[in-house]
Structure formats: C-alpha cells, structure tokens
Amino acid sequence: MVLFMAGLGCCVLGVVAATVISLERRVIVVTLVGSVGCLLTFTAASQVLVSGRAESFHSSLVLPLAGINLTLDPLGALFVAMTSFVGVATLVYCVGYARGELRSRSALSLLLVFLMSLLVVPAASSVVTLLFFWELMALSSMLLIMVEQRRRVETRVAAQWYGAMTQLGAASILLGLLLLSTKGGQTFGDIRSHVAALSPTLRSFAFVLTLIGFASKAGAVPFHVWLPKAHPEAPSPVSALMSSAMVAMGVYGIVRVGNDLLGGGTLWWWIIVVALGVVSALFGALHAVTSVDLKRLLAYSTIDILGLVLIGVGCSGALAASGHPRTAHLALIGALLLVVSHAAFKGCLFLGVGAIERATGSRSLDHLGGLIRRIPITTALFVVGALSIVAVPAFSGFTSEWLLLQGLLHGFVGKSSPTLIMLLVGVVALALTGGLTAVAFVKVIGIGFLGQARSTAAASAHEVPRTMQIGMGILCIPCVVLGVAPGIVIPLLNRAIQTGHSSSVSRPVETGIGLSLVHLRGTIEPMLLLAGFVVIVAVIAGANSIRRRPARKVEAWRGGGDRPTARMQYTATSYAEPLQRVFADVLRPEIDVEVTHAVESHYYEQSLSYESRVGDAIERLAYQPAIRAVTRVGLAARRIQNGSVHRYLAFGFIALLIILVVLA
Amino acid sequence: MTDIGSSLGYGFIASLTQVVLVAIGGPLLMGLMAKVRTRAEGRVGAPIYQPLRDLRKLMAKEGLRARYSSVVLAAAPLVVLGSTTLAVAISPLVTTHPLLSASSDLFVIVYLLLTGSITMALAGLDTGTAFGGMGSSRAITIGALAEPALLVAVIALSIQARTSNLPTIVADTITHPVWTSTPTRLLALVALVIVVIAETGRLPVDNPNTHLELTMIHEAMTLEYAGSDLGLITLGAAMRLGLLFTLLVNLFVPWGVATGSSVLGLLAAVVFLVLKTSLLAVVVSLIEVHSAKLRLFRVPELLAGGFVLAVLAVITELVTR
Amino acid sequence: MSTSFYIGALELATGAVLVCAVMTLWRRQVRTIVTMLRLQGVALACVAGVLAWHEHDLGLAITALLVLAVKGVLVPWLLRRVIRRDPRSRETAPLINVPASLVSAAFLIVVSYVVTSKLTALAPSAATRLVPIGVATVLVGYFMLVTRRRAVSQIVGLLLVDNGIALVTFLLTAGVPLIVELGSTLDVLLVVVVLQVLVVNTGARHGSFDLDEMRELHD
Predict the structure, then answer these.
(1) What's the gap in Å between the CA of A481 and the closest CA on chain B?
(2) Is residue A233, in this structure, part of any structural domain at all?
(3) Does B311 touch chain C (CB under 8 A)?
(4) B300/A582 CB distance under 8 A
(5) Other CB atoms closer than 10 Å to residue A574's CB: what's the count?
C-alpha cells in the first residue's frame, strides 16, 4: 500500500508543480512526476496481482463525511495497473503534443487530477470514497474537454451533454449504493457482510440503478449519446485516457457491484446486461463503419468493443447464476482480457489520430491519404493498434475474443433456456460485429494512409515529434505481447476474478506455450502460429526473389482514360456506402438533394447538390423529444416566477402548512 | 522423447503433404470447374492443368508496381499466400494430427482467412485508383456479411462436438457417423456452401471470368498486379478455394482422413481427399452453370439467408440435444 | 423401427418443414414460393407418417395420406390458377426487405424456442422436444401474412400458419381423431378456394391485387 500511496502522492505533487512551474519546463516536469507516480502505482498493483493478497488503507482525515477507505484487491489492482500503463504512455505523448491551451497551468493540473482519480476509483472500498473520486473524475474530464473550447462551438455542446449525462449516471450510482448501505455501514466490507439481510427487491433495485450509471459511463446504448460527442472534442491525450481507462471504470463498477458486493445475483439482472451489450455492439459497429471523422469512428468503435465486454460479463454472470462456475470464470477472463487489450489498442489509436491531426491538420478521412509515405513510423504504430482491434491472430484482440468465444461456446452445455438464449444472442452479436469492425478499420487504414493524398494538407504532412511516437509505441507493446504470450497475464486475471467468488474453482485456463482450457477441450498457441507464419513468408519471399529483377514502377490502369487524380479515388463515404445501404433501416441516414434547374428549360439541371448525414438515431428519436419536453415544462414553470412577492411568500406558507399536517 | 520427435516428424510430413497437395490441387480444382462449365456449354475448353501453366508463365514475367502504391502492395501477395498456407498446414485435410494441431482451431482458421481478405482489400486501396477502391469496397462488404454466417455455422459445429478444435471435430465425426445426418450438420452445410461461394468469388456472387471492370469484385483488387506478384496472388486465391473445399468435405464426409500415424494411411487419405473434393468441385460448378450473377445489392439477401440457416442450425442443436 | 432411426427421421422431417417456411420468406419468385409450400406439405406428411409407423396408429397413417393429398397436391394446384394470371410475378418490394425479414425470422425462431421450452419440459420426449419448430412455423407464416404484398404470398402465409398448427398437433398428441382432421382440412380448402376466386376476379377487374392499395375499410 505504501507504493500505491506514494504514487498518488506523486500525482498530487505533479498538480502542485503544474501550478507553480513556469511555462518552458512545465510539461516536462509534470510528465516526469506523473510518470513516476504511475510507475509506482503500476508496481503496487502488480505486486497485489502476483501475490493475490489485498492491502488496505483507512484514514478519517482526508475526506469530510466518513474518511477515506482504500483497498487494493486483485480485481481493482488489474484496473489500476491498466490505467497506470496507459497514463505513462499518455504523459510521454503529451510532451510532444502539448501546444497552446494544453500547456496551461489549469489544463496540466486537471490532467493529473483526472489521472489520479482514475487510479483511486478501482481502489476505493467505501461508498463515499468511490463517489467522491467518481465525481472528481467526471468533473476533471469535463473541464479537460473544454480546453480548446475557444476554437470550436461543438466543444461546448459536447461538454454540456457529457456533464449532464455523467451527473445523471452518478446520481443513479449514488442511489443504488445508498440502497445497499442501508443495513450495515458504507464501506464495502460492511456491505458484503450485510447483503444477505437485504430483501431481494432492494438488491435488484440497487443493481439496476448502479447498472444504469456504470453502463452509461461504459457507453452502453441507449445511454451512450455523450460518447461520440465528448471523446472527439477532447484533446487527443485526454481522449485516449477517457476511451481506454474511463470507460473501463464502468465495467469495473458492474463487476464490483454485481459479482463482488451482491455476490452473483439472479439471472434476469445479467439478461439486462447482455441485452445492453448486444445493442451497443451492433449499434457501435454500424456507426463506426459509416463515420468519416476519425475520432468519431474510434468513439463508436469503443461503444462496440465495450458492448462485447458487457456481453461477456453478462453471460458470465448468467452462467454463474445457473450453476456453471467454470465456464462463467472463462467468459469473465475473456471479457477482462478484452478490456485490457482495448485499453492498449484504443489508446494507441486515439494517440495516433492526434498525431495525424498534428501532422496534417485534419481528422476527416476524406481529406487524408498517402500518409504511409509521408509519416511511416506513425502509420506503422497506428496499424498495429488497428490490426489488434480487427482480431488478426497473434494480436491481443484475437486472443481475448477467442477466450470470450470459448467461454460462450462451452456454456451451451447447460439446460437453462434463458441462459442458452442469452449465449446464442451474444454469439450472434459477436459474429455480426467482427465483420463490421474489419470494414471500419480497413476503411481507416486504406483511405487514411494509402493511395494518393486527397488534400494539400495531407500531401505535405510531416512526421510528428519523437515523444509522441514513443507514447504510441508504449501502447503497441501490450497489443503484441498479450496476443503472442497471453500466459503472462492469464494467471493475474485468474486471480483478479477470484474476488467475490467463494467457489473453489480456481484456474479455468492453463498457460504453457499457449492457452489451454482446463477440463474442456480447447487450445491455441499464438506464438507457434506467429513463428509458423514468419517461416512460411520467409520461404515464399526467398523463393520469389531468386533471379528476379526488381519491379518496375508504372502508371496505374485507368481504363484507357486520363491520368488518375486523387479525386478519382474512393472516399470514406463511398467505401462504406454498400453497407450503409444494406443497413439503411437501422442507420436512417438523412439525405438532402437540391436541384437548381436551368433558366431555359425545366428539364435541364444547372446544378445538383447532394448531402447525406448519418446521425445518431437514438439521439434523434429518444433524447431530442425528451429534451424538448423538459424544455417545455421548464418554460411553463417560469410562470410560477412572475415577480410577485406575495406569491413567493404564499409558497413558503403553504409548504409550512403541508409539513405541519404531515408531521401531525 | 522419440514419441514427441516421431509425432512431430509425422505432423511435419503430413502438413507438408497438405500444403503441396493444396498448392497443386487448388489450381487444378479451378481448372476442373472451368472444364465442367465449358463442357456444359457445349465447348471443348482448356485442359484441367491450364491454371498451372498460367502460374508458371506469370512467375517468369516482370513485376510492376503502381506509381502511388507503397509497401502494402508489395507485401500483400506474401501475406495472403502466407496466411492461406499456414491455414492449410494446420487444418486436418489428410490427417487428424497435422503440425500445430493444438492451435488448429476453427476460429483460428476463420480469422486467418479474414486476415487474407483484409490484406487484399488494403492492397486494392493502395493502388490509388477508382477500380481498386471499388473492388475493395465490394469485396469487404461481402466478406463482412459472410463473416456472421461463417462464424455461426462454425459455432453450431463446435457446440455439437463440444470443442472448436478442428482435428478433434473431424476425429469425433469419424467415430460418430450418425452426426453427419443430423439437421444441425445439414443446415450448417448449406450455410457453409453459401459462405464458401461468397468467399471464393464464384457465381452467383462474383464472375471470375469477367473482363468488365465495373462487374469485378475480386479481380478489381488485383488489376494492378503483374508478373510474379500476380502469380502469388492467384496461387493464394486457388489455395483458398482448395482449403475451403477440402475443409467442407472433411467436416461433413470425413471418412478417408488418416487417423493413425502410418505413411500408407497418409497416401490413401490423399487419394480419398482428391476424389471427394473433385466431386464437390463438379457439384459447385454445375450450380454455377445454372445460376446468373446476382446484382451486388441482392448478395446481402443470399448471405442473410445463409446466416438464418446457420442460426437455425444452432437452435436445432439446442432443441435436439 | 429402431429408436435412433425414428428420432433422426423425425428431426429431419420437422427441420424440413421449418426450412421450407424460411425459404418462402427468402425467395422472390411467386412460383418458387408455391413450390416451397408443396415441399412443406410433403415434409408434414412425412412427419405424420413417421409418427404413425412408430406408434403403429392406422388413423394417423390415413391422416398422413390425407395431408399429402391436400397440402402436397391439391392446394398448390388450386394456387396455380392465381399464378397463371401472372407467371413471372415476383415479390419486388415487400414491406420489410428480404435481409431484414430473414433476420426477423431468426428472431421469431428464438422467441418460439424461449416461449415453448417451459411447455416441452412438462413432458419431454423425442417428439415434444421439436414443438418449438412448429410454433416457429406459425410465427413465420404470420410474419409473411403481415409483410408481403402479393396475394399469393399472403395466402401462402395463411397456409404456413395452418401447417405449423398441424405440425404442433402431430408432435404433441400424435394427431387428433381423423374426423377432426378431415373437418379442419375441409375448412382450409374452402378458404383457399374462396381466396383464389377473389384474387383472380379482383385482379381481372382492377388489374392488380395489392392489399396496400385497398384502404376502404375505415370510417
């Protein structure tokens, strides 16, 4: 615990340094101090994961109401380790990226406050601590989104949406946790020991309320509307932290409350979780395919992957509730490994988009192209992240999806039909989103990096500072290592999921040179696959280059026409158009066609303008009417305040009368 | 130690046999299907080994690179051929103990094939032309819609066999022949046939003999390739066809696959495999002869039908257990 | 007849009934849809036949022959008159497009499985386990009735509902008494004859029979 507290102390020191040190050295010092803090917390978390023993800290001094309670157990340590790792990479990236507003005192200190709260939330072991740092996390991230608000109007709107929805979520979590702490105290230990005394209805209410709050933070549809607005508007390092670590806190909350505090729960809770996951995965994948803005695409892809994680968590809970602990653990391990690899590859991708923005000044795919020749190193690092998310074998995305699929597959031996249906729906959702994610990221790599440059900005792109590349590179390491040698982390995950389960099933996955399932039939050895692939490609390349002249560069085939211009290439919109057409009923694109006819005759057209937008259907159909209704009610309520002092006094008088009557 | 050594040696020989067989047999299959088609049309047609001659011609020609292309265009043939060869080496085609049989998982094979498709799509976009983008967009749309049907059909088979390890599924099917006539297997078979037709670019999804760029799907991505690169890509496509066909026959009619570790069994397995796959190729070719190419926007209907049949397969498995 | 052969044949025949129902949603050619209906009638007769052989029930065997005659031969023949007016007609613009209807069919099949699993758990046997497939056929038929424009498709939807109900009765109770079966078959036959006459005459008078264009039934 000492190391962990020392790490947090370093972050506080960094906040102080950010306010004190002058402009030239501010970023470097803050980064240094912050990275040291993250390394300390990473070491502390790894110690807990390796030894399997939890460590605690309690003090009634730091927080007002009930003091601060911290407990670093293996489940929380997993998330702390993940966050620290992403934090180090992001801070290193900031050294090269920070420019203008991001170098100000407020921005850098807020960044460290955000990081610190992300580190404390998984270690919190009382309701007050958790909520305090949850709110701190939300507020600091909202302010960080607004760092560049002077330049774009959308930033302010995004921050409003984010603030409103995160507050609603926090209120929901508060209510739920309060319901749980009615019997005993408010520390997690008290809640755990008194949970059996609560009525089942109360427990269900608490679970649903906390689920709404945590699922909203994790970007589950239909509570996701803030994510595609907020993540793009934040500066790239903040987006990376939000998309990798903050959304994982939503998953952490669900696992902590559902599995640990409430001890497993009943089947229908997890049905709701799986339903949320399925809808999120499909919705996110479809919108990622049709997005043109790079950051918006990545935000929807986050919704997609977190949907898959929720499917895993939900199916795991359902399997545990219907009496199959081994497959439940297997599914949960797959889900947690997916969360960890998502943090790595999504962080890498967001940092990469920041690099692209810095190099070309644009983040719209239709203005990029040909970047592989101008900024090869950034391209290579970005491609590693993209290959991982598409689940190419020997990358971490594939290994986590394989584990998740095995968990779902082997769960089909049960007899409880709701569980079987959930597993079936989960498997179908996984299958559908796999192909769509591949399309989305082939679009990103192919149109963003390959071919000819579609704008002068892209044609004159220059390589980004070395520290930005190092930051991305740090996050590429887990993408490869977790895929090729998952045996390193699987024992740690085994220990992380033991928290809260009193069953004696300990290790559903054995690790040797690969992974093999215990008592079930299923194995993979990604390292050997990669070795085999490398050998085969070497043999083919060698055989191919014997007595061969180097290839000649020629003009591309253009059907006998003129020299191909960059405008003749496919754009991001046209690339995804077939899929947009197939799923038009779900996406509901808005299409506007404006025709200006020629003066001479109505049959000839002078100009034609076509505009197509794929908006967020849930926002249009559910949220906008709700906002309009609330606005109407608010406007109507203004009539209460008509300025008459008599009316205000009358309100107070009537309220007093009512209270007296009720008390009597 | 000698046990591991001999089993490793046997696995290596078996996998090598499979790779060589599919590398030669894939083009021969394409030639056979072309021959059946031309015969059905009343012509004589080219000999069955014509694709092999074409490959030999291509390997001797000079390679070309498009002006705006990058390392992706140069590396794509290697990656496509490499991933397909790896999938062939670890699949249970002539034996149930190939090399790396512990990693020979249905999902590994599916995602290896997906890697090949993704690489081809990227190579299409790398050319910087409209045709490449068009082929890439269409091919990946079809791939994205065939993926769900493929995965769910594979999952149906895995649920029935209680594992997703391919050699184990084949070995268990040999010892439980009654599995091959269950509705689950039959529905999964139909779904997989639809997926294989889509993934290998045969009619009614794509016409492999078209010369009009606007009707191309797979060929549009390879328009910029010439010489040995085109040879590698064509060989990769032929091996993909061979792999998918042989996997299809081995999953549904696995008798003939060597289960022991004798070289004689291996040779017999090769003969059986050639016979079974040729039969499947003739059947698919006859389907091709009798169908017209679907409009691109009707292909999702076909693939959705395959998807529903695969879901039906899973539900039937749940219901009839 | 050995048990495993009986179970296998029953499963195959029942599966064929549902697959034919899904194929009617998939294909656009009206002639193919009616062919699928005919195949479904044959498969239904096979189910009844297999059950009759296993239970050694003569009444059920006669029912099987009746089903074959009526659903496999007579009804498709009656529908021929409707098709003959426009032999190449296709379902070009259903209210829900084809991929979406197929996905909805998958969803309906899942729903039927969930809904009937409690029912089949009451008396588990090889035949009652397959009841969800019959319920699924009913739902798919109803779906077709709701979302298709062509008259023939809607008649086929109605007949799918009837076939599904018949399948469920066969599986659950090894058939109803012959007289009841005769009565319900005559009912369906009457409905088909009336519908067929109606469609042909309306089509001859107004040129087409699109239910969506007939909105007179309101206040």
Answers:
(1) 18
(2) no
(3) yes
(4) yes
(5) 16
A571 DSSP 8-state letter: P
Neighbours of chain C (3+ CB pairs under 8 A): A, B
Cβ atoms of residues A99 and A46 within 8 Å: no
Which DSSP category does B297 fall into? G
Nearest to C99 among A417, A425, A582 (CB): A582
Task: Give DSSP secondary structure letters for C23-86.
Answer: HHHH--BHHHHHHHHHHHHHHHHHHHHHHHHHHT-HHHHHHHHHHIIIIIIIHHHHHHHHHHHS
Residues 120-139 of B with CB under 8 A from A: 121-122, 124-134, 136-138
Q: Per the CB < 8 Å rule, is B65 touching A553?
A: yes
ipTM of the complex: 0.92
Q: Could you tell me the residue ranges of all domains in chain C?
A: 3-218
- Of the candidates A71, A179, A85, the one whose C-alpha atom is nearest the C-alpha of residue A123 is A71
Residue A311 lies in a domain: yes
Judge contact between A255 and A313, C-beta under 8 A: yes
pLDDT in tens, B226-238: 888 999 999 999 9
Among B103, B199, B222, the residue to mutate for chain A (most A Cβ within 10 A): B103
pLDDT in tens, A91-139: 999 999 988 778 888 889 999 999 999 999 999 988 989 999 999 999 9
User: Is A522 domain-assigned?
Assistant: yes
Distance from CA of B154 to the nearest CA of C (A): 17
| pLDDT per position as a tens digit, A587-637 | 888 888 998 988 888 888 888 898 888 888 888 888 899 999 999 999 888
Same domain, A641 and A501: no
C131-147 vs C151-173: helix axis angle to the nearest 10?
A: 170
Beta strand pairing status for A523-524 and A515-517? Answer: antiparallel
Contact yes or no for C102 and B181 at CB 8 A: no
Q: How far is A420 from chain C (nearest CA, A)?
A: 9
- Between positions 71 and 100 of C, the ones with CB within 8 A of A are 97, 99-100
Q: Which pLDDT value is given to residue A633?
A: 92
Could you tell me if A152 and A272 lie in one domain?
Answer: no
Determine whether the interchain pair B126/A450 forms a contact, defined as Cβ–Cβ distance below 8 Å: yes
A412 contact residues in B (CB cutoff 8 A): 159, 318
Q: For B156, which residue in chain A has the nearest alpha carbon?
A: A409
Residue A516 sits in the same domain as residue A384: yes
Interchain pair C15, B316: CB under 8 A: yes
pLDDT digits (tens, 9 = 90+) for B71-90: 999 899 999 999 999 999 99
Domain limits at A7? 1-187
Among A146, A164, A187, residue at a domain's last position: A187
**Please, what are the averages of pLDDT over each run of 10 residues along chain B (321 residues)?**
72 91 95 94 92 92 86 92 95 88 90 94 91 92 93 92 90 88 90 93 86 85 88 94 94 86 87 94 92 88 91 86 73
Please check whether residue A9 lies inside any domain of the structure.
Answer: yes
CB A617 within 8 A of CB B179: no
Query: Which of B26-40, B255-269, C110-124, C187-201 ranks highest by mean pLDDT?
Result: B26-40
**pLDDT above 70 covers what percent of chain A?**
98
Going by C-alpha positions, the residue among A402, A391, A386 that lies closest to residue A352 is A386
- CB-based contact B128 A566, cutoff 8 Å: yes
Is there a single domain that holds both residue A390 and residue A516?
Answer: yes
Put simply, the answer to whether A402 touches B107 (Cβ < 8 Å) is yes
Residues of A in contact with C97 (CB under 8 A): 585
Q: Does B162 touch chain A (CB under 8 A)?
A: yes
What does pLDDT average to over chain A? 88
Write the DSSP string, A28-82: HHHHHHHHHHHHHHHHHHHHHHHH---EEEEESSSSTTT-EEEEE-HHHHHHHHH
